[in-house]
Amino acid sequence: MKNLVITLQVLITFLFLQSCEKYEMVQYGDGNEINFMADYYLGKDKKPYWVDETEYLHYETNFGINPLGDSLLLDTLLVGVKISGVPTAYPRKVVFATKKLGDNTLEIVCPEEYYVPADTGVAVFKVLIKRPEKRNTEYSAYLTFDYEKSDFKAGTVERQTFELKAENSVSLELWGSSQEEWDGYYVMFFGDYSETKARYLITKYGGTVLNEWTMTNKFYDVLYSNGFYLDFEEYKADPNNAPLIDENTGEWIEIPDISELL
């Protein structure tokens, strides 16, 4: 039994050292190599928690269903990098590039020059994702490094690309509902469904999950004041506002006047 315990202790120690060695390779490499870090909580509205696991090196977003609706033109993404080797006493430049991933290439904007500060081997940068031009179409790209313009060489292969996907899509299903539910309930508030109408409501009121939004006090405040109808009539009366054309009828969308029901 004693020999078995000793054997198990040796085995556990060996496995622990193996895992540490693997992590150290990711962390330090051969020196001056750059790798992406991943945010474990990316897209979850939490403080970033940076990890090395490659399964988190991806980001998907939908510009159609978001609190700002159609007014959101750029989405901000925080990108982490880790540099192998000994930190330097001077800043080092990082330049990003994109590679084609699918048929529709996602546009990425780098609003500033990026540098890894002196005396550190990690940094976090902000890049911007442009709203896809075509609706209901997936756009994608790999974010990677421009090594010729950066002060680093490539690190581990699997940590050299960050997969990005975005779309500008709105549907009842994406909004957390269905045609049956709309026709049986929501139609009394908003009239017949159309994508244009859904986009207007999301942009105006910020409700990204329909059945959750319609349970809030803010929703009922607008409803009981006939605000959905009045707000839309105000929008429609302003010549500076773009026409909101129902894709099903070719005419302006309509919001019912429910004043007589209140």
CATH topology of the largest domain: Immunoglobulin-like
Radius of gyration: 25 Å
What is the end-to-end distance? 81 Å
Order of helices and strands: HEEEEEEEEEEEEHHHHH
Give the DSSP E fraction (strand runs of 2 or more residues): 15-25%
As for the number of domains, it is 2
- At the fourth level of CATH, the homologous superfamily of the largest domain is CalX-beta domain
List the total number of helices. 6
* Overall average pLDDT: 90
The CATH class of the largest domain is identified as Mainly Beta
CATH architecture of the largest domain: Sandwich
Secondary-structure class:
alpha+beta
Q: Please describe the biggest sheet, giving its number of strands, its sense, and whether it closes into a barrel.
A: 6 strands, mixed
Shape: elongated
Model regions low in confidence, pLDDT < 50 over at least 5 residues? 1-28
Q: What is the strand tally?
A: 12
The portion of residues assigned to helices is 25-40%
Summarize the structure.
With 262 residues, this protein is α+β, with helices and mostly antiparallel strands.
